[in-house]
């Protein structure tokens, strides 16, 4: 049974060898990194502790090195090289995150008037329900998630993701599974799309999401985990990704009203809750909304910077006990990981105060999330896709 929840902050490339989900589908990979949470170990020690064949451990260690999850010290010992939070670490983070999140939310609320004025200029914002969705997407996701990371990187607190041979760039993170699933940790964004339209979902991790891009990510993952002949895996997944880009653009044009939704695509979008009677049920951000969205993201960036300058420097002592900090993992990657707990708490507070949408759990055991569609031009303007 899996003991870890492994994810990334960033984007993978087309080669499944550099997909964390591929490598960590092996319980042995989990066993190796967990064995290193007490400190560097000789490979032979790891083999003895896990009671596995030496060749099997060597194979997994090679995969983990390629993933930049472990490194080899000068004395030959293996060391953990990414932000992995154990159950004890999570208890520490859970104690400090709510207070820090509320402080951050307070700085955002100081700018509520300017944010609300910008929200009211978005199409359909006369509807309180739509305005709440806009706030969740622009403040919670574009502002605190994407923009928050950019602001903290600019201030020198966070490090950019590592680069991989297939063009992927991300920060690898993992957490030991909790006894209970937490709801309303609004910090998880996923985006996929084509040249003209992008689909985003944002919300918590309390359940799966039956929306885009999540469903097509599953398709890509299913293709990637097949044992293709040597050298073909990256090529196959790249072809599948190319086809998906065309599909995203076709579906995006239908949701945006650029072309009529017909046939299987209409049924698909209707079943996922994007369209009803040909009209969009989700927010649609066009390139024309760049002005108000930029103003909101800028206001949130000011709030993040004000919060960070008074808070981040004093976090060092509190976080010193965390496993990745003790083991010398890149401090900027660790703070990127911790930032997600903090802004999740800020989003929870803002949602429960009525400042933004507080999504209900979706049917079928899904989590709490919002899905939307955006023209690629908007995301380029925000620096979220190439060309921005």
Total beta strand runs: 12
Distance between the termini: 42 Å
- Characterize the main sheet: 4 strands, mixed
Rg from alpha-carbon coordinates: 21 Å
The percent range for helix content is 40-55%
Low-confidence stretches: none
List keywords for this structure.
50% helix, 12 strands, alpha+beta, 2 domains, 14% strand, Arc Repressor Mutant, subunit A, four-stranded mixed β-sheet, globular, 388 residues
Short description:
The chain is built from 15 helices and twelve strands. It has helices at residues 20-23, 27-35, 43-50, 54-66, 87-109, 112-119, 128-154, 214-224, 233-255, 263-271, 290-311, 315-319, 323-326, 331-352, 376-381, and strands at 4-11, 70-72, 78-80, 83-85, 162-163, 169-176, 188-193, 197-203, 275-276, 279-280, 284-285, 369-375. The strands form four sheets. Strands 1, 4, 5 and 6 form a four-stranded mixed beta sheet that branches. A four-stranded mixed beta sheet has the order 7-8-12-11, with helices on both faces. A two-stranded antiparallel sheet has the order 2-3.
Structural overview:
The chain is of the alpha+beta class. The chain has two domains: 4-84, Arc Repressor Mutant, subunit A, CATH 1.10.10.10; 93-159 and 183-381, no CATH class. Helices cover 50% and strands 14% of the residues. It contains 15 helices and twelve strands. It has helices at 20-23, 27-35, 43-50, 54-66, 87-109, 112-119, 128-154, 214-224, 233-255, 263-271, 290-311, 315-319, 323-326, 331-352, 376-381, and strands spanning 4-11, 70-72, 78-80, 83-85, 162-163, 169-176, 188-193, 197-203, 275-276, 279-280, 284-285, 369-375. Strands 1, 4, 5 and 6 form a four-stranded mixed sheet that branches. A four-stranded mixed sheet has the order 7-8-12-11, sandwiched between helices. Strand 5 (162-163) and strand 6 form a beta hairpin. Helix 5 (87-109) crosses helix 11, helix 5 (87-109) packs across helix 14 (331-352) and helix 6 (112-119) packs antiparallel against helix 11. The longest helix has 27 residues, at 128-154. The radius of gyration is 21 Å and the shape is globular.
């Amino acid at each position: 049974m899996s003991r870890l929840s492994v994810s990334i902050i960033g984007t993978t490339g087309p080669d499944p060898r550099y997909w964390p989900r591929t490598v960590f589908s092996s319980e042995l990979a989990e066993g190796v990194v967990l064995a290193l949470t007490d400190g560097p170990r000789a490979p032979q020690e790891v083999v003895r502790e896990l009671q596995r064949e030496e060749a099997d451990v060597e194979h997994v260690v090679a995969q983990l090195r390629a993933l930049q999850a472990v490194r080899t010290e000068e004395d030959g010992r293996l060391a953990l090289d990414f932000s992995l939070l154990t159950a004890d670490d999570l208890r520490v983070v859970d104690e400090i995150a709510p207070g820090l999140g509320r402080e951050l939310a307070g700085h955002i609320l100081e700018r509520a008037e300017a944010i609300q004025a910008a929200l009211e200029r978005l199409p359909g914002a006369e509807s309180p329900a739509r305005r709440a969705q806009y706030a969740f997407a622009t403040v919670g996701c574009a502002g605190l998630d994407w923009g928050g990371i950019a602001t903290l990187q600019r201030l020198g607190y966070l490090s950019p993701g590592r680069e991989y041979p297939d063009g992927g760039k991300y920060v690898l993170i993992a957490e030991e599974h909790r006894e209970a699933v937490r709801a309303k940790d609004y910090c998880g964004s996923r985006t996929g799309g084509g040249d003209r339209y992008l689909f985003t979902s944002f919300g918590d991790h309390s359940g799966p999401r039956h929306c885009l891009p999540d469903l097509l990510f599953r398709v890509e993952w299913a293709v990637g985990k097949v044992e293709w002949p040597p050298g073909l895996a990256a090529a196959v997944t790249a072809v599948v990704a190319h086809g998906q880009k065309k599909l995203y653009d076709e579906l995006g044009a239908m949701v945006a009203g650029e072309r009529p939704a017909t046939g299987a695509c209409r049924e698909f979008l209707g079943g996922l809750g994007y369209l009803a009677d040909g009209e969009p049920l989700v927010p649609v951000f066009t390139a024309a909304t760049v002005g108000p969205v930029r103003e909101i993201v800028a206001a949130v960036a000011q709030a993040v910077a004000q919060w960070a300058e008074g808070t981040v420097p004093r976090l060092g002592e509190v976080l010193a006990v965390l496993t990745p900090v003790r083991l010398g993992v890149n401090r900027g990657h660790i703070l990127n990981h911790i930032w997600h707990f903090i802004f999740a708490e800020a989003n929870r507070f803002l949602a429960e105060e009525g400042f933004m949408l507080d999504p209900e759990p979706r049917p079928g055991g899904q989590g709490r999330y919002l899905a939307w569609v955006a023209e690629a031009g908007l995301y380029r303007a925000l620096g979220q896709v190439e060309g921005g």
